[in-house]
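From the shared-data thread, chain only:
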Amino acid sequence: MMDPVASAYLHIPFCSHKCDFCDFAAFAGLDHLEDEYFAVLESEIRQRLARVKSPVRLRTIYFGGGTPGLVSPASIDSAIKTLTGLVEVEPHPEVTLETTPHAITRDRVSAWRASGVNRLSIGIESLLDEELQAIGRDHTVEQALAGIDLACRGDFTCLSLDFMYGLPTQTLSSWRKTLERALEITDSNQSIKHVSAYGLSLAANSPLYSRFPRDSQAYPDESAFVDMLDLLIDSLTRSGFEHYEVSNFALPGYASRHNSTYWKNGSYLAFGVGAHRYVDGYRSANFRSLGRYMKAPTEDEVSEYIDPETRVKEALMLGLRLRRGIDLAEFEERYGIDLYNLHRERLERLEDGGFVCLEEGRLFLTRKGVCVSNSVIVEFM
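Structure, as tokens:
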């Protein structure tokens, strides 16, 4: 029997401003298309769900973007009602909405909560104005603090603050200032139970390169990048956050349930322009072109059957991102693969180098391995 599909992602592409580092299907200046987009989105939801063979029992719903926080709360509410009216939903699902801090208002907070949104993911990126300007963000530190304050009054189950490091003009010292200020905020606001922090990774044609070319001295070098990650881990774990995934930290019991679906290689639904899904054994994606998506929302730009060999590789890649790593007995039961013996020579070499550890039947990255996680994981690909 197939496992139920437990998670659904809805992509909302509208932004007030497209950041220079962004490589997502996000569009500024098209908010006049909001009503039409949501009508198409809800049509896609109905049509795709009618085709799904696996049982669906949602425990998480995630609005990503773009900036979902900018659209009318009534549009978010309508999409939630359309989706949950067609599938079974577990009691007390995690419903996350991404937003920029300056999109948060008292009225929106109230409307989001009334619709069932219980988790906000707030894109802060940096708490220094000069770094926000360097990456093309259109909010200031003052606006970030004001937005966080409003969100903390909203009775959300969990607020997540999202940051980036390895930014142009950023130094270890300036990153320390952001982290210190962030922890002052989390210490004084009990609603903030999660922090995400991603190292800057740019697409080849990123607009940021027009101001800071790839070889610019403005970017921290590899050694400084590793030092920033070390500082991040030390600062947050000392403050009581569990480092549960390479780029994510949570107070006990508040890890992202939605993102855990991805990391555990589970099936998930996805709707909206550019959205990627994994359901009924296929990984597929909608068109990234907004016009193309609006004309044919159920036509896939990419669709690939995930064969057993690829499924095992993906489970290994995703599982190693989790700090608890991979339970080898559970892995063998699920995939029929003795992972350690299959990769014995490679694992022994990585163990000797101090990059991975096998302990109590669990394979996981060491602290040293986390700092070069992509390089370690690619060894198995």
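The longest strand covers residues 88-99.
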